[in-house]
Amino acid sequence: MKVVIIGNGGHSKVVQEMVIRQGYSLHAILDDKYEREQIIDGIVYAPLSSIHKILDQETQVVVAIGSNMVRKRVVSKLKLPGERYLTVIDPTAVVSNSAAVGYGTVVMPKAVINADAHIHDHCIINTGAVIEHDNLVWDYSHISPHATLTGNVTIDEGVHIGAGATIIPGVKIGEWSIIGAGATVIRSVPAHSKAVGTPARIINRSIGAVKDIM
Ligand SMILES: CC(=O)SCCNC(=O)CCNC(=O)[C@H](O)C(C)(C)COP(=O)(O)OP(=O)(O)OC[C@H]1O[C@@H](n2cnc3c(N)ncnc32)[C@H](O)[C@@H]1OP(=O)(O)O
User: Origin, by domain of life (predicted)?
Assistant: First the structure.
């Protein structure tokens, strides 16, 4: 199967390697840093506006952009049906048979997703992250390397959990909130907040909603 990757920054590099390791054919990398189409080593590099020319029935797409808001903006613009997005799960990740992983979500090496966890669309489950049983992770969230969501945690849309953070059982993180690297979150965090430290304290309650920047 042919794969088109959108975005060519640091996160994309990792996704490109995962896609190639899994035997997919990397057909094109689209990024607006390219002004025109060019082919290098058989891969098409082109601006995002080329997508509809490049897509055919056998092509699937991954939006490999690390910013949750920008990822959402690009997916909203493309208006492709969900099934056109490839779900990329590294073979070294452990994903329970009772867990669900949505369209366009990327599960990096050595991540663990346990029983009855439900990860929605266009999320990043980064290297070595642990998503325990009965978690609910909504669209466009990013769980950074080695972060741990213990049992029954809810992560609303667009949340970024920083590297190595731990969220204790039953806690909910409201949409578009950011949890700092290494934080220990022991109480639910409202939407559009930034929380850091152990135990985590809120340092900002007014992170812009995605609609404000789209
Ligand atoms: C493969 C990859 O790279 S995946 C990407 C993974 N990325 C991450 O894990 C990054 C997570 N980001 C962070 O931890 C950031 O520090 C953020 C988002 C929490 C805060 O960033 P900013 O809004 O720029 O905050 P800023 O740096 O101004 O700090 C504000 C205050 O919070 C404190 N603070 C910031 N981050 C942390 C943290 N992780 N833990 C504890 N305190 C922190 C600062 O010391 C400062 O405190 P002060 O006001 O008493 O001086």
Answer: Bacteria
